[in-house]
Amino acid sequence: MRSATLELNQADRFASPKPANFDRLARVYRWLEWFTFGPILWQCRCVYLDEMKSRKAALVIGDGDGRFTAELLKRNQRIAVDAVDASNAMLRQLKQQAGHNASRVHVHLADVRQVNLAPCKFDLIATHFLLDCLTTVEVESLARRLKDAMTFDAIWIVSEFAIPDNWYGHLIARPLVTGLYIAFGFLTGLSIRELPRHREALQTAGFVLTKQQKRMWGLLVSELWESSPIANSRSIPKVFKD
Questions:
Q1: Cβ–Cβ < 8 Å for 55, 121
Q2: Nearest CA among 202, 195, 178, 169 for reference residue 15
Q3: Average pLDDT rounded to a whole number, residues 137-147
Q4: Domain annotation for the chain: domains and CATH numbers
C-alpha cells in the first residue's frame, strides 16, 4: 500500500524504452569523472563503506567501471555481489577491477527498470549516480522492487546529484546539471533531462532517510536509507556539510 501519492508531471512519467548506451565510455569513464569533479564523486561513493563491513549479500546497480564494487570487495572479504548494468562494456570493466575478488561477483546485463530480483536476498543495495538516469516514477517503481528484494535489516546507499533550493542551486547547480545531461545525452543517448525527485519517490515506496552527507554545497549527496519498519524508531537524519 502506498504511503503517499506523488504528483507527477509529464517529464516524470516516461523515459526512452531503450536504456542509454554507456559502452563507449567504459574505458574513459574514470578520466571523464576526474576531469569534471576530481575525486569528489569517488568520495561520495565511499562515505558509508564502514556501514557495509558486516554485510553479506550486495546488489550494486549501475556502478560504471566498477571501482566501488572493487573497493567493497576489498573492505569486506565475506560479501558476495550481484552487479547489474545495461552496459556490457561496463560490466567487463567491473570484473577486471574486482581482480582476485572477481569470483565473488555475479554480473547481470539488464535494464534496471525491468530486471527480476530474488525476494529477501540482499542486505545491502548500492546505487551510485544511477537514479539520475531514471524518471521519478521509474525511481519509485525500482524502489518498490528493491524493497521486496531486501532483508529486514538491509540498507540502501545512494549517491546522487541534487539542486539546492537557494541562489547557488538556481544560478550554478541547475545549469551545471543541465549541461551534464546534454553532454551525456549526446554521448550515450540518455533521454532524461532533469533530476528525478528521488527522495520523494523513495519515501513514497516506504523508505526512510537515516543519514545524509552533502558535498559541493549540496550539489552532491550521499545517503543511507532503510525500509520504514526499521527506521521509524531512528532520530532525525544526521546531516554533515563539507
A1: no
A2: 195
A3: 97
A4: 10-241 (3.40.50.150)
